[in-house]
């Protein structure tokens, strides 16, 4: 079954590169959003199989976006994978306290990203 993945990231180049990666390697249906507001609206409307969420975004950051997704009954079941350049130990500890599916650190390897996400979603569903 083809997965539908929503990428929420304020950087157009990151969105495009990640989208191409996942479409080419896995043939997944990829949706993108450039802001928290747009991402939440798409998550509610499209009900993706997972959300790849950038942590550092202007206006509303990824953690606040995650909180909003968790607070909404129609999106709280969607696994969220954080994409972040914040790899410090304190940041990682904060992330593990959240009900997220996983954290993928930027820069990620485009050749292994799709398999990494697939493994995360398989483990999350188990």
UniProtKB/TrEMBL annotation:
Recorded hits in Pfam families, A to Z, give: Response_reg (PF00072)
Q: Which residues get modified to 4-aspartylphosphate?
A: 54
Q: PROSITE patterns, alphabetically?
A: RESPONSE_REGULATORY (PS50110)
Keywords per UniProt: Phosphoprotein
Identify the taxonomic lineage of the organism of origin.
Bacteria, Bacillati, Cyanobacteriota, Cyanophyceae, Leptolyngbyales
Query: Per the record's keyword annotation, is Phosphoprotein included, yes or no?
Result: yes
Please cite one Gene Ontology biological process associated with this protein.
Answer: phosphorelay signal transduction system
The protein, known as: Response regulator
Per the UniProt entry, what species is this protein from, by scientific name?
Phormidesmis priestleyi ULC007
SMART domains found in the cross-reference section = REC (SM00448)
Per UniProt, residues of the Response regulatory domain are 4-121
